[in-house]
Write a structure and sequence with these properties.
The complex is a heterotrimer of chains A (350), B (500) and C (333).
Chain A (H helix, E strand, L loop, with lengths): L9 H28 L4 H13 L2 H26 L7 H18 L4 H30 L3 H22 L33 H18 L1 H11 L1 H6 L4 H28 L10 H11 L4 H25 L4 H27 L1
Chain B lengths: L2 E10 L2 E11 L4 E5 L6 H8 L7 E6 L2 E3 L4 H7 L1 E4 L11 H6 L11 H15 L14 H14 L4 E5 L7 H16 L3 E6 L2 H7 L2 E6 L2 E7 L5 H9 L17 E11 L5 E11 L3 E5 L6 H9 L4 E8 L2 E2 L5 H6 L2 E4 L14 H5 L10 E2 L2 E2 L1 H14 L16 H13 L5 E5 L7 H17 L2 E6 L2 H7 L2 E6 L2 E6 L6 H10 L4
Parallel strand pairs in B: 3-8, 3-9, 6-7, 7-8, 13-20, 13-21, 16-19, 19-20
Antiparallel strand pairs in B: 1-2, 1-4, 4-5, 9-10, 11-12, 11-14, 14-15, 17-18, 21-22
Chain C lengths: L3 H31 L7 H19 L2 H25 L4 H27 L28 H19 L1 H11 L1 H6 L4 H27 L11 H11 L4 H24 L5 H18 L45
Helix pairs in contact in C: 1-5, 1-8, 1-9, 1-10, 2-3, 2-4, 2-8, 3-4, 3-8, 5-6, 5-10, 6-8, 9-10, 9-11, 10-11
The chains are: A mainly alpha (350), B alpha/beta (500), C mainly alpha (333).
Chain lengths: 350, 500, 333
């Protein structure tokens, strides 16, 4: 885990991010080659993409919408990784969170001031529970969490599929299989008229602050860091590492669950299958590229979100497929992860 | 000269594991390599076997300089090694493990020839194994026999054994020695890493003693005695005499009754051990490394399961309870390995210092840490315990060994525990730090804590302890009062289990 | 009329067809995982290979060339993953995620370009074997499959022989279980792992080609549809042994096929719960410890010489959570 939990002071992480920026440019350049093949001028195309991410308030809102989801899944993954747990189940935890929020939204009839928080809460709980299962297995039985969380992803996705097709959640009046519409009392209010940007972003930012404070200033955060740093010494020192692992997974899954809740309660307004085109996996990448620090995760998720929003716009305007952005993201991830290792490898040589 | 290692230097960050070590082994010889844990024996052999690369120095094989860059090179030369922790692949059978890596291509279809060769070796050297048994089904002794055949199968002329008898019963050990003697009669040479003096005397022709990475001396076994060897191996110059006030025993703080526990390799580490430590007393456990002392400390601390017996701390039955709970009952544990088992190297000094207390007032309230209190605490402790650093927010990995140990002392002792488990607290420390640690422990004794002190340094035990318990092969073979505890008696018990 | 006989035969035919890409990819992944490397990037490898195979077979009009190029593409991805995870020791999961994203982007991007230029084109796939007798003896219809299906059976058997009856197979098992022991036995763990990951990549390439040239004769966006991940699950379910992996893949194919039929028939059988089952089985098997995972799966191995390790005092295993045999912290670097 040393290579993951290396520098975690903000300054060091920022320095990391700057060097990563160079590698990102390399990936962007590669993307430029592909654009050229399409017969477009890469600079012009990127200009359009940049505009698509930040050009006008509406575009900025789109960037922020994508950022919100990635921020939460990235945060969730990072919390687990800080504890030394390789949680790759953000995708499944997201789905369960969406399910939980949907159920709470539809099952209860309450005034807004109670209903929305309750639905978000259930999103957190369902996602947290989904991560808790592999967490318990790891803590009590030493079961490898990489494999269990990976499997839980698929179980989760199919569970939602099942819920949307076969349970009373399903709205028979709709053409495509989806749940009933979420009542207004459980909907995340829009932050900007005419955009998709919803109050989930505020939840995401609050989560960043919360995670940062928890890790830095609370006993729980301390136990997470200690366990992640040296589980043997933590145990010698009297920390109940079993409990720490389980609680951490609960929080980790809960954050990804909030991401799913946000999708349902803020973006779509109902639950359908396929609500996440891999946001969970992107979240893992976000967490690692950002060096597991809450504040840099914000930056990285803005960047990834900008790529997604910008490419959408670029496709509409120029016909260049959105898929270009996955190329850039994928290449950037691989280069950055590789470079961090190169760096620590060089450090060791000295 | 069959094998010669000349002036080998091997450095790791922060420590010189081998400091200009020279070793020579003749054909047909059983050469023992003796020393404490951390003396550099295994490192030296790892260099010979190609697992490590020496920073300086040369290896000569049959009077020719050779470069051993990998185990493959070593095996080609005819060097085989049986490691302390078995290098066997669990799901595979004995035959498969033996044959592993010997051929690059081809199928195992030729099992008949392989098995024939294995059986032949097995019979020739008296090493009984079952070719088709899988490793996870084997006993410890069987696993070792497989390891030895593995080396012989590859044509080893020189066989290196790292602490081979640590997990064997006396009878199995005797069988092993018979095998080794047989091998040397056939022309093989054997290097035998150990800390058991009995065995050195029983089976080796020559012995080289290492201490802190340097060779103390190489002698013919017939020319020396156990106590001489022990002194070479373990004795440290007693530079300062520590004053100790007369013992004022009070109530028992720790009572261990008939405790049994297993070791890492599945063997019996502790067999029905009993002892009592009183407040204001230092109970020193003397014994050569690996006779169950560490396991005992772990059982008391709640880190290892006691398969039988009971542990009473201050009258409460705390057998097999969680470590945290035991600590909250006034127990402090100074672990054997300060880095792996004691500290979080990437966290700051201040963060390490609150490991055992962070959840309590005044360090935290309602789950929130109080940074100022933590910082003040760190400042206070680092000055009180003489930890030489300028910034308590610096990462712990920047500290030297002596300072790290003081850090642990600070962490543990600042809680004013009533029972202190000190496991080799001065190992690897320089003289000044050693002195500091010892005087600190004595101060705790003054204060009224009971201390269970484990050390491989007999002088240290005798100097510090009120009561001396001697452990040998997992048993407490003697508990001596201050009047009875003298070097000869204790030394003899340490080395052979009895006072004679 | 749909008789039970016909239904079962139909099911078996399509089960074999559907499971083949997964089986081929899974067998390749078995090699990689047995040696200690988790490669979830086979999803991406399959996708790009499917596209390349499709493209080349159309360009040259030769399906075999298409397959060869697909395999080659898979191999290239394998080399990349091997280099990043084995040689430089990068995190295996993230590397896989990155490769998947990259693949998804690249294949979709290039395909859309292709579509613009040429429109929907069918590839010259490999035709299914046709057995005349099948008319009289319906059961023989099961044998009317594309060559890919037969290749997958062959691969399963060959892989089993290689992994369990050859020296190379021993080395692979050792590298995944106890790489330190392997190194002391003179094995170059890095080389073995690289070879295995590349084998995995090559087979993923073949699996991709079997999608665009066997199962369907065209390419669609993201046509792998998660089959790469299913392959990873099947490897676990099959306890890392090729024959069991084959069986697991068949079960999956059968359920996939069943699910499609049920959907088409418009039944109320909750097929998602069925599809969930393989993953549930795997999770339960993992939980109760019935599967014997290669001990060092997903843990990068640092050769002894390169370790920055300080002298390791005796670290008792009681202090490690699960009480398994002591692993030095460097093992997890």
């Amino acid at each position: 885990m040393k290579s993951l939990i290396s520098e975690t002071t903000v300054f060091a992480a920022l320095k990391d991010a700057c060097i990563s920026a160079v590698l990102i440019l390399v990936s962007v350049a590669f993307g430029g080659l592909l654009i050229a093949m399409y017969g477009f001028d890469p600079l012009q195309a990127y200009g359009v993409m940049l505009y698509g991410a930040f050009g006008n308030p509406l575009r900025v809102s789109e960037t922020l919408v994508s950022m919100t989801i990635l921020l939460l899944t990235g945060l969730g993954t990072a919390v687990a990784y800080r504890c030394g747990i390789w949680n790759i189940g953000a995708e499944g935890q997201l789905y369960l969170g969406a399910l939980g929020a949907t159920w709470a939204a539809l099952a209860f009839s309450l005034p807004f001031i109670l209903h929305l928080p309750l639905s978000l809460f259930f999103g957190f709980v369902f996602g947290g529970f989904w991560a808790l299962i592999p967490g318990v297995l790891k803590a009590k039985r030493g079961t490898n969490e990489i494999l269990t969380t990976l499997m839980m992803n698929y179980i989760g996705i199919w569970l939602v599929h099942y819920a949307v097709h076969f349970t009373p959640l399903k709205d028979p009046n709709k053409v495509f299989p989806q749940s009933y519409d979420i009542p207004v009392s459980a909907t995340l209010p829009k932050l900007m008229q005419g955009s998709r940007l919803h109050a989930g972003m505020i939840v995401a930012f609050l989560s960043v602050v919360a995670v940062y404070l928890i890790l830095r200033r609370t006993t729980f955060g301390y136990s997470i860091k200690a366990t992640g740093e040296n589980i043997i010494a933590a145990r010698v020192g009297g920390i109940n590492v079993s409990r720490v692992i389980m609680l951490t997974m609960l929080v980790s899954g809960g954050l990804s669950g909030l991401a799913g809740a946000g999708e349902v309660l803020g973006v779509h307004g109902w639950l359908q299958d396929g609500i996440s085109p891999g946001y969970g996996y992107m979240g893992i990448a976000v967490a690692l590229v950002a060096g597991l620090h809450p504040l840099t995760i914000v930056l990285v998720s803005v960047f990834f979100g900008a790529l997604l929003a910008g490419s959408d716009y670029m496709q509409v305007m120029t016909g260049i497929p959105v898929a270009l952005v996955f190329v850039i993201q994928g290449l950037a991830i691989v280069l950055i992860v590789c470079r961090r290792l190169l760096q620590s490898f060089l450090e060791r040589r000295q | 000269m069959f094998v010669e290692m000349k002036d080998i230097v091997k450095r790791f960050p922060g420590v010189v594991a081998c400091d200009h070590v020279s070793l020579e082994v003749e054909r047909g010889e059983i050469h023992a390599l003796l020393g404490e844990n951390g003396a550099g024996k295994t490192t030296l052999m790892n260099v010979l076997y190609g697992l490590y690369r020496a920073d300086e120095g040369n290896v000569y094989f049959k009077d020719k300089k050779v470069d051993v860059n990998s185990p493959r090179d070593a095996m080609t030369l005819g060097i085989g090694m049986v490691h302390q922790h078995f290098m066997l692949v669990q799901p595979l059978t004995a035959a498969e493990n033996i044959v592993l890596g010997t051929e690059s291509a081809g199928f195992l279809g030729s099992t008949r020839t392989v098995k024939r060769k294995i059986t032949e070796l097995s019979q020739r050297y008296g090493l009984k194994i079952d070719c088709d048994e899988r490793v996870w089904q084997m006993s410890v002794g069987e696993k070792q026999r497989v390891e030895i055949i593995k080396a012989l199968y590859r044509g080893a002329d020189l066989l290196i054994l790292d602490e081979p008898t640590a997990v064997l019963t006396p009878r199995e050990a005797a069988e092993l020695f018979a095998t080794l003697r047989l091998m040397t009669r056939e022309g093989h040479a054997v290097i035998f890493i150990t800390h058991k003096l009995d065995e050195v005397m029983a089976v080796s022709d020559r012995v080289t003693v290492l201490r802190n990475g340097r060779v103390v001396s190489t002698v013919r076994t017939s020319d020396t005695t156990k106590s001489e060897l022990a002194k070479m191996m373990v004795g440290r110059e007693v530079i300062f005499q520590l004053t100790r006030t007369p013992l004022r025993k009070r109530n028992p703080i720790l009572e261990v009754r008939d405790v049994c526990a297993s070791g890492d390799r599945g063997h019996d580490a502790i067999l029905s051990v009993s002892l009592t430590v009183h407040e204001g007393e230092i109970f020193g456990i003397a014994g050569v490394d690996g006779n169950g002392q560490s396991e005992l400390a772990e059982v008391v601390a709640g880190l290892r399961k006691a398969t039988a017996g009971k542990v009473f701390i201050n009258g409460c039955d705390l057998t097999n309870r969680a470590p945290g709970r035991i600590m909250r009952n006034g127990v402090g544990h100074i672990p054997e390995d300060r880095m792996e088992g004691g500290l979080m190297m990437n966290l700051s000094v201040a963060e390490n210092l609150i490991l055992e207390v962070y959840y309590d007032r005044p360090f935290s309230r309602w789950g929130i840490l109080d940074e100022r209190v933590i910082r003040d605490h760190a400042d206070k402790l680092t000055s009180e315990f003489d930890v030489r650093i300028t910034n308590t927010q610096a990462q712990s990995k920047t500290l030297s060994g002596g300072n790290l140990q003081k850090l642990i002392l600070a962490r543990v002792l600042s809680r004013k525990p009533r029972l202190i488990l000190a496991n080799k607290p001065t190992r690897g420390l320089d003289v000044a730090s050693t002195q500091y640690v010892r005087s600190r422990l004595l101060a705790e004794r003054e204060r009224g804590s009971g201390i269970l002190l484990i050390s491989a340094d007999l002088d240290e035990i005798l100097m510090m302890s009120d009561t001396v318990g001697v452990m040998y092969s997992g048993r407490m073979v003697g508990t001596l009062s201050p009047e009875q505890a003298n070097k000869d008696v204790v030394g003899s018990m340490m080395l052979s289990g009895s006072a004679s | 009329m749909v008789t039970l006989d016909n239904f079962i035969i139909d099911l078996t035919v399509s089960a074999l067809k559907l499971s083949t890409p997964i089986i081929i990819a899974a067998i390749g992944e078995t090699f990689a995982e047995r040696s200690g490397v988790l490669n979830i990037g086979i999803e991406g490898g399959m996708l790009t290979s499917a596209f390349v195979a499709y493209l080349v077979s159309i360009a040259t009009g030769n399906a075999l060339l298409g397959i060869a190029s697909g395999v080659l593409t898979g191999g290239i991805f394998g080399v990349v993953h091997a280099y990043l995870t084995v040689i430089t020791g990068a995190d295996q999961i993230v590397t896989g995620v990155g490769i998947n994203l990259f693949s998804l982007g690249l294949s979709t991007f290039l395909y859309k370009h292709f579509l613009d230029l040429f429109g929907q084109v069918y590839s010259p796939g490999l035709p299914a074997v046709s057995i005349g007798l099948a008319r009289q003896v319906p059961v023989l219809r099961i044998l009317e499959q594309t060559p890919f299906v037969y290749i997958s059976i062959l691969l399963a058997i060959t892989s089993w022989i290689v992994l369990f009856r050859s020296h190379f197979g021993l080395k692979v098992t050792a590298s995944g279980e106890h790489p330190l022991a392997a190194e002391t036995a003179g094995i170059d763990v890095h080389r073995i792992r690289c070879v295995c990951v590349i084998i995995g990549g090559l087979m993923a390439g073949l699996a991709g080609a079997s999608l665009s040239l066997g199962l369907l004769n065209l390419f669609t966006e993201n046509m792998v549809q998660g089959r790469g991940f299913v392959a990873v699950a099947i490897v676990i379910l099959g306890n890392w042994t090729p024959i069991n992996v084959f069986a697991g893949g068949l079960i999956f194919g059968a359920m996939d096929s069943l699910q499609m039929r049920l959907q088409a028939m418009g039944t109320t059988v909750p097929y998602p719960l069925l599809l969930m089952l393989p993953y549930l089985f795997v999770t339960v098997a993992l939980a109760i410890g019935r599967v014997k995972m290669p001990q060092m799966l997903c843990v990068p191995y640092v050769k002894e010489k390169k370790r920055r390790r300080t002298l390791l005092w005796h670290v008792p295993s009681a202090l490690t959570r699960s009480g398994r045999s002591p692993r030095t912290r460097d093992d997890a670097l």
